[in-house]
Amino acid sequence: MSVDQAEIEKIAQLARIRVAPSDIAELTERITGILDMVDQMQAVDTAGVEPLASPLNASQRLREDQVTETDRHGEFQGIAPATESDLYLVPKVID
Amino acid sequence: MSDAYWETVIGLEVHVQLATESKIFSGSATTFGASPNSQASAVDLAMPGMLPVLNEKAVRYAVMFGLAIDADIGHRSVFDRKNYFYPDLPKGYQISQFDHPIVGRGHVQIQLGDGSTREIGVTRAHLEEDAGKSLHEDFHGMSGIDLNRAGTPLLEIVSEPEMRSAEEAVAYLKTIHSIVTYLGISDGNMAEGSMRCDVNISLRPRGESEFGTRTEIKNVNSFRFVEKAIQVETERQMDILEDGGSIVQETRLYDSDRNETRSMRSKEVANDYRYFPEPDLLPVEIEDSYVAVLRESLPELPAAKRERFESQYGLGSYDAGVLSGERVIADYFEAVAASGDAKAAANWVQVEVLGALNNSDLSMSDCPLPATELAALIGRINDNTISGKIAKQVFEILWNEGGSVDAIIDSRGFKQVSDSGALEAMVDEVIAASPEQVQQYLAADEGKRKKLVGFFVGQIMKASKGQANPKLVNEILAAKLDAAS
Amino acid sequence: MSAHTLAALSQRLGSGDVSSVEITRDYLARIEAHDPALNTVITVTAEQALADAEAADARRAAGEAGPLLGIPLLHKDIFCTAGIRTSCGSKMLDNFVPPYDATVVTRLKAAGAVMLGKTNLDEFAMGSSNENSFYGPARNPWDPERVPGGSSGGSAAAVAAGFAPAATGTDTGGSIRQPAALCGITGLKPTYGRVSRLGMVAFASSLDQGGPLAGSAEDCALLLQAMAGFDPADSTSAEREVDDYSSGLEGDLAGLKIGLPKEYFGDGLDAGIDSTVRAALAEYEALGAELIEISLPHTHLAVPAYYVIAPAEASTNLSRYDGVRYGYRCEDPENLYDLYTRTREEAFGAEVKRRILVGTYALSAGYYDAYYRKAQQIRRLIQQDFLAAFESVDVIMGPTTPHPAWVLGDKANDPVAMYLEDIYTLSVNLAGLPGMSVPAGFVDGLPVGLQLIGPHFDEARLLNIAHRYQQVTDWHTRRPAL
Lengths: 95, 485, 482
Description:
Largest sheet of chain A: 2 strands, antiparallel
Shape of chain A: flat
Number of domains of chain C: 1
Structural class of chain C: alpha/beta
Order of helices and strands of chain C: HHEHEHEHEHEEHEHEHHHHEHHEEH
CATH topology of chain C: Amidase signature (AS) enzymes
CATH architecture of chain C: Alpha-Beta Complex
Number of helices of chain C: 15
Helix content of chain A: 25-40%
CATH superfamily of chain C: Amidase signature (AS) domain
Oligomer: heterotrimer
Radius of gyration of chain C: 21 Å
Distance between the termini of chain C: 13 Å
CATH class of chain C: Alpha Beta
Number of strands of chain A: 2
Number of strands of chain C: 11
Radius of gyration of chain A: 22 Å
Largest interface: A-C, 54 and 73 residues
Distance between the termini of chain A: 36 Å
Strand content of chain A: 5-15%
Strand order of the largest sheet of chain A: 1-2
Number of helices of chain A: 3
């Protein structure tokens, strides 16, 4: 399956990565190369094969409902790019 | 054509915050109203290398809900990642469930205003994590992000598009509210966002089997707003359709100030959630024995309680519905009914207690009047210690100042006068002071006399400050007036 | 000094022959003298290391013992270390100082190990050459013009260069085994779930696994003993007893059935590597093992399936790097979208971006079934190949890599060629199996690795099989001259 530049741009928007216009052609070519390689999969008949999401053949262990965390917001916000009044700051969120 | 021509089709997605102590995937507290980010752990903040661990109680609560709505409980439930970028979603994905929800198809019974009931299908209910909050106060043109709520367990309950009016939608929502609070799996506090609702609405000509294009109204957070939002959205869609236009499938917001819905500005990029199995969690296996134990421990649910109230206490279906609607109200009612007079209990709880709560904007759990006192009050009416009228005064004092029924009656001298000697003297006094009325009474025929006797009763009650036993007063009056003729 | 294995150092510490402070100083000095040429360490934590070494000496003086007490180590800079910058080789985390330790770090600390610093790696562990590091490539001490492999290239090169007796690494598609092979040391990728992933910066959650890189199988056994074990904070951690990895090292190999997948010896394998590996296999025959040709018929699909699954998981694991709570944030974002897109454009390297985009594509509406679901189905077929093979053999062997270390820059412009270098290692991760690479000789002066693959949770047997080989060969003791 080949991808065109428009598709790469759409995917880049979805992934929230800006791609400079000067890079888009090369990026498209590289990704097309990867997808071409990946497309070898299509030759295999996998009808009826249950997908394997995790190599561990196990089920989820559950945690007891207990509060084990303490307030560490000072420490955590010490490494944040922008905070004020204990809040993380981002450019205005508009719905 | 309008209403008669169009049929409204409504489906609800209800998000219920589960009343766990800790978050669904971390050991942070879930307390409402804590200071910003004080309950956001490294896991909740999506710090690098942090991993989710599933809270058993969230699973338990979801299964309990499933049992309560008679649903299929998935033996194998899988968590998925729902990917989108938003500042209140630290990981850039929400851990949710897509293909294998914990609760499958079930149904609830809703009751409408006329006492009739209807069954509404529940498509599924799945566990997921709540997001944080964006605060839009102006921080120099920035928004502030509080992640305390991020990771609070949610049960998303998806209905079939089987409701046909705002009334049905509200009744459904109330039923869900009632079930989750009965089960104790949520505090159901809508003002604090413990229960939030997305409404899907479409219109189609009656008789048509295909659905029309729907809109989704996000985050409607009270029963009243759900009702209003449905009404205005229905009208909006009707106007468009009748003008020959077509509905755009989109997400809308209900603005309660302006009582209108408006389109949410579609984000720069269309959503593509890219669901896939969450690799940090394994499938949850739910054993039959686990389900069986929970099934055994389920409390009596609202529908069953309503039926019992009807049969055990002889209540009408409407009263039984109101009194069983909330577990705290039902428990309160039953505690009052223990006094022996269930009808009076039903009446007092519905009219006086719920009325007073409503006036003071309190919920049943904040009720200042203990059920035992209301039961005592009803007992004092029934044993003729006080009249119904006085009882309302006592109720008000109890409500506002507290105290016990008997102490209030004693200290305020509310005790009903049932001493026939004292009452006879009062009756004599009133007859003597009202010769004109006596003459009128004597001149009247049987039919009119009944009306005229009210004047004398009124005078006597006034003289006794309401404490005369009205039954005795009537008897004595009748005898004395008849004797005067 | 540098030739000392961890086991030997441990004995000398135990006998009081040397102190932890002394050996820690020696290693720090060696790093200081030689690392500028090799760039294997991103952050040297000298002060902390000496303090920890003193503490370890004090513990020993107080009567405590333990094979890792006072042993200096390097951690791959993907394991979070409280108070010490954990960059993951990315500009995104260049300023990130985590307020917590990874479970692996906690466990090794508790065992008394001394951290010398944090090693270089491909950004977010995405790469096979260490060229994708924000801090520049680490170099192969056997030939500094060549790559050390990746992504745990810094760890492998540092151990080979004698900067530490051992280092931690992570392996998502070969990231421990391949650099171990290219640098001539021993590396072990444990069974998925054997070592906690908590605090290990995630690349692909269903594939990532931490493990040791060291001078010998014996040393790997000592390290794995401390690293492995159930962690309630990692839902994918196996709730299962940890074997005693050292006690079984000497087990006899007579009758051992070694499976040789014909797919691992076909086209694309360097002739020198082929003959080196066959020589190693002959040693095993001499030790009493039996060689059995087997087939893993879906091997050729490992690279395509892996390059869907790993990027898909990575694309969402890396969504958290958004410039809001930690890490890099672009200057003066105009709006939210600008904050996200520019932060991620400016702070992710080219390969990371490519993988995020490929992964996003593979998961997006309309492509999910053709890519992600298909890859997971192939993943099952690959796992089934192995499980079927292990019904008739005890261990599978073959080359770790198709080629020895290549010259820096040679494959930098051809991602697919780079991906194919991991052809023998990827399927082990897809199947969740334990795998090792042990030094088996040289081709033109460059080390060659022999890969050992075992059944799930059979690390003890793998270590035993590797150790017996290392008792009759000395490839693992060879070190480059710096």
